[in-house]
Write a structure and sequence with these properties.
Blueprint lengths: L2 H29 L4 H14 L1 H4 L9 H19 L1 H5 L5 H12 L15 H16 L1 H7 L9 H7 L12 H25 L4 H12 L16 H14 L3 H10 L8 H24 L4 H16 L14 H13 L12 H19 L8 E2 L2 E2 L2 H27 L4 H12 L20 H15 L3 H4 L4 H4 L3
Antiparallel strand pairs: 1-2
Helix pairs in contact: 1-2, 1-4, 1-7, 4-6, 4-9, 6-7, 6-20, 7-8, 7-11, 8-10, 10-11, 10-12, 10-13, 12-15, 14-15, 15-16, 17-18, 18-19, 18-20, 19-20
Length: 478
């Protein structure tokens, strides 16, 4: 393990994080707010960044364990440093700040703020910017410039990009990262324009576009998107849906004009789940709550897309919906978006592969002499990919249930504990019961907040990248 090079890369991350606060500092100066919280935070980040110059002698070489360590420690360091403006501004304590910032970077959207509208505009902007950076993965930004350090970024990419496959768009990892960021930025700009056309001012449109494309869900209003026009909610639904799609498909369609992406197995499954679940919710709201067609379908599609993409925006209190609709939404939290998107959850592709395995096993039971192998998109699923998908589902459920035990031990009722655990590990944010879409996490004991913070980071990195750091074998020299 190349510890010196690891420190060098982490110091580069600190430099990038410090640089990113310039935008929030500029907002504070433009609107006449106190800039000192950001100045003090940047000073601390600058001090950490000095490690970059101290580690000049590091060997430009990274291996698998280095990539895992950088990603794990990088996310922990980033969530601590990015929370400093909230602490220095006097808006949060250290534990609440780490929870809020981790929720931002992991694009979870869970918040400890009981009244978000009292925060200064610059703090709200930084809160949304954190989500935007975390959406694609702040370390993807780092690997885009790692060649300047004389080191490739593939080991970081393997540990960072969510999903069971790590397809490259182009041969060079740094070029892949740049393309991803260009796509991400371009769609974000389109989202800002759409929101402004729907009545938002530039700053709020930017804040919400950041949170939408990151599938994060931080809003500048206590009522979330319900505070804005119906057209803004429909635009938000569309862009949340797009953010939940594998960015490789965006690249193929936009850069190459490849319309074959519409035949992608995972995209069809993802779209089908959204449409069916939304229609069920919408029709039920029309029948059982006497809502008109447009309102029922807007609330249904908005909240279904928000939950399956793990964004966490809300335009209605779905905790007041019929119970079976709430159960549908809880299941969608587990599903998540597509692999290679900014969404959380287990990912649609894994569930599709598990379903194909289930069908293959049934076929073997019916015809014992027939050799049936699970397939995905017409190809046999490699054993290691299937194994990874199965173990991911098992570990996801195990960590979630373990979290429920701890949360009930610190005073939460079972429904709230279950919902909060699922919402955090799947990076959704809002749940049901006491952590519903119009509630927050402020009432939870500090021990519970620390646990949920760790589960948010682990869930964002698909569990293994964090869990492996707790195994002694990882730290032994090979």
């Amino acid at each position: 393990m190349n510890l010196l090079m690891n420190l060098r890369v982490l110091s580069l991350l600190a430099i990038l994080l410090t640089f990113c606060q310039i935008a929030a500092l500029a907002v504070a100066l433009i609107v006449g707010e106190d800039p000192m919280p950001f100045i003090r935070s940047m000073a601390v980040g600058g001090a950490v960044s000095l490690l970059y110059f101290v580690t000049r002698s590091a060997r430009p070489e990274l291996r698998a364990r280095d990539g895992i360590l950088i990603v794990g420690l990088g996310w922990i360091m980033a969530t601590v440093l990015a929370g400093l403006p909230f602490v220095f501004g006097g808006w949060m304590g250290w534990i609440d700040s780490w929870f809020e910032t981790a929720s931002g970077f992991t694009t979870t959207g869970a918040s400890i703020l009981t009244d978000v509208e009292i925060l200064p505009k610059s703090q709200l902007f930084w809160r949304s910017e954190i989500q935007w950076l975390g959406g694609m993965g702040i370390l993807l930004l780092a690997i885009a410039i790692l060649p300047f350090l004389g080191v490739g970024g593939m080991e970081i990419l393997k540990a960072e990009v969510p999903g069971p496959t790590k397809d490259r768009l182009v041969p060079r990892v740094a070029s892949t990262a740049r393309i991803l960021w260009v796509l991400y930025f371009a769609i974000t700009v389109a989202n800002i324009v759409a929101f402004m056309g729907s009545g938002m001012d530039f700053l709020e449109a930017t804040d919400h576009a950041f949170a939408t494309m990151a599938t994060g869900g931080f809003s500048t209003r206590n009522a979330s998107l319900a505070a804005f026009s119906p057209s803004a909610q429909w635009w938000c639904t569309l862009f949340m849906f797009l953010a939940g799609i594998n960015f490789l498909l965006h690249y193929r369609l936009i850069y190459r004009g490849d319309t074959a992406v519409f035949r992608d197995t995972e995209l069809r499954a993802y779209s089908g789940i959204v449409v069916v679940a939304s229609l069920i919710c919408g029709i039920t709201l029309m029948v059982m709550q006497d809502k008109d067609l447009e309102l029922a379908m807007r609330q249904a599609f908005f909240n279904v897309v928000s939950i399956i993409t793990t964004t966490g925006f809300a335009n209605d209190d779905f905790a007041k919906w019929p119970l079976f609709l709430q159960v549908i939404l809880l299941n969608l939290m587990v599903v998540g978006g597509m692999a290679g998107s900014t969404a959380g959850g287990i990912k649609v592709v894994r569930l599709v592969m598990v379903w194909e395995l289930f069908l293959a096993i049934l076929d073997r039971l019916i015809q014992p002499r027939r050799i049936t192998l699970p397939k995905y998109a017409g190809s046999v699923i490699p054993p290691e990919v299937m194994e990874g998908s199965l173990i991911m589902v098992v570990v996801f459920l195990f960590v979630m249930l373990l979290s429920v035990i701890v949360l009930t031990a610190v005073g939460l009722d079972f429904t709230t504990a279950f919902s909060a655990s699922l919402a955090c590990i799947a990076n959704v944010g809002p749940g049901i019961a006491k952590v519903g879409p119009v509630e927050n996490y402020a009432f939870i004991h500090d021990v519970g907040k620390l646990l949920l913070t760790i589960t948010m980071i682990a869930g964002r990195l698909e569990l293994f990248t964090i869990l492996i750091l707790f195994f002694p074998r990882f730290w032994k020299q090979s």
